[in-house]
Amino acid sequence: MSFLSKKEIYSLLQKYSVRPDKKRGQSFLTNRYVAKKIVDAAKISDSDIVLEIGGGLGILSEWLAKYAQKLFIIEIETGLVQALKDLFEHQNHVAIIEGDALEVDFPRINKVVANLPYSISSEITFRILKKIDFEVAILMYQKEFADRLVAKPGSRKYSRLTIDFQYYAHAEKIMDVPSNAFYPEPAVTSTVVKITKREEKMFVKSEDVFFKLVHGIYPYPKKQLGNALKIWLERLDLNSDLSRLILKNTAGIEGNERLREIPQESLIRISNTIADLIQEGRMPNL
Ligand code: SAM
Description:
Elements: H1 6-15, E1 28-29, H2 32-40, E2 49-53, H3 59-67, E3 70-75, H4 78-87, E4 94-98, E5 111-115, H5 121-131, E6 136-142, H6 143-150, H7 160-168, E7 169-177, E8 182-183, E9 190-197, H8 207-217, H9 225-235, H10 242-248, H11 264-279
Parallel strand pairs: 2-3, 2-5, 3-4, 5-6
Antiparallel strand pairs: 1-8, 6-9, 7-9
């Protein structure tokens, strides 16, 4: 059978006393073909140890369990944990972890596959990036969020999230999934994204300065760099003239560039200038 009908989902939810909660992103995929396409993108073999976040009623988990050597599923909702335990009762290579994916210790795995609860997209993505040494992650997000992960300089979607994310990883879109592939139907389209960690290490003198700079200037994405630097310095109670010193000491940067157009490498060079100025005592600590 290729579809879990809405009626079937409804009766499973009733059986396990689960009332779908938007805050927990509880929209369940109803189409097993879509689930298989998501799982296929991870190219899982019997040597892979896979983590799924938010197993729900197990539509992705069933495919993952079929191919992986070992599958860990984290699920927060007690009723859904029971549903997953029943589904995988006779499959010892599937381990279900009841808990909050933002808090539990992650097991050692090499692939991640998940239809994420959208309310925690950002937090869970950065937690995965920082805590797990994975080869590939296939994750489904709200389309608007996915667009920002893959954005390039010059795009309207190029934002602070883009820069933070692309510091750690690369993302490419796999496919869009319409809202009618879920029950209950979310209000938005979803997008599946393939994430791999950056292999080349970027030369950042101080990560702290880099992220402070990005978080300090990207609230003003339409502004020119020089103006955004001034506003940020003023908000830190620092002399806004320091912006000229920063620009003068960063080769190839004029100050009239729009923030949305500045590639990450240039932002790194600006942050390295700031780190040098601080170290030389020509600028106060941030
Ligand atoms: N994988 C299923 C599917 O594709 O139909 C369910 C996906 S649904 C979008 C998100 C799932 O994540 C729900 O089962 C929800 O209970 C679970 N969830 C929500 N917040 C969570 C959290 N903080 N930690 C772990 N699971 C969570």
